[in-house]
Amino acid sequence: MTSHQEKIIKIAVVGDVHDQWEAEDELALKHLGVDLVLFVGDFGNESVDVVEAIASLNLPKAAIMGNHDAWYSASDWGRKRCPYDGEKEDRVQEQLDLLGETHVGYGKLDFPELNLSVVGSRPFSWGGLVWKNAEFYQERYKVTNFAESTERIVAAANRAAYETIIFMGHNGPIGLGDRAEDPCGKDWYPIGGDYGDPDFADAIAQSRNQGKTIALVTFGHMHHQLRHTKELRNPIYIGAEGTVYLNAASVPRIIQTPSDRLRNFSLVSLQNGAVSQVSLVWLGRDFNIASEQILYCRQESVQSILSQ
């Protein structure tokens, strides 16, 4: 009999949505036969309708909010451009209410059938070493700096029921490289620099020191196509401990070709508490895979599977 640890768990990571979510996406995910769906945020500019559709997805799932999900609420800049009356509507809270426990920002969600927990980093992140939108975080979360933010993430990880953890954020952690093409590299002028989140990185390190097995860290925010060269970002980083870091923000995630309509998902295979493969797939109208790019393959896991 196959145990939880031996089973290959198939995870779909949905990169920055930016209003590109259709009824066909749920059908596509079911056609792929995934066990879990992770949404790394930026559903739209406070797009309540998009979040409502994703909240109704009938599959095990977890989500975290991105900077665009508080586009008109988090900053003075955004509030001045808000197309609705912020005194009468709170679209940020509407989105959070729709997602309920599915939203893991500063929280966790246990999946007993998969023997793992998903832990969320700081929601609504813009990235970088400056503590942005201080009033927003104070009012919403009573968090005033990176250190307090780290504490919130670590506390969530400590409440996780399972030792195997998937961390997810909108932006990734600092420490994955400072080139523009690195997973969280700065690709606007001046070019270069690590734009990862320091609180996320500290929380991962502390959780690992406390004995948690961190199989995967996934995020988005920094789109795969670089702004200054239009070349592609490196979406994968492998940590010294074997943790796989995945930037899933392949934007736009739905494209129309002359002959087909294609939608992308990042697929992660998890076995024995470790990632064995990561790929970026594009599905056509028939929900079959039109193209697949293998981003990572753990050779020792492949050999282990073949020898069983």
UniProtKB/TrEMBL annotation:
Domain of life: Bacteria
Span of domain Calcineurin-like phosphoesterase: 9-224
InterPro entries tied to this protein: Calcineurin-like_PHP, DevT-like, Metallo-depent_PP-like
A Pfam family annotated for this UniProt entry: Metallophos
PANTHER family: CALCINEURIN-LIKE METALLO-PHOSPHOESTERASE SUPERFAMILY PROTEIN (PTHR35769:SF2)
Name the UniProt record assigns to this protein: TIGR04168 family protein
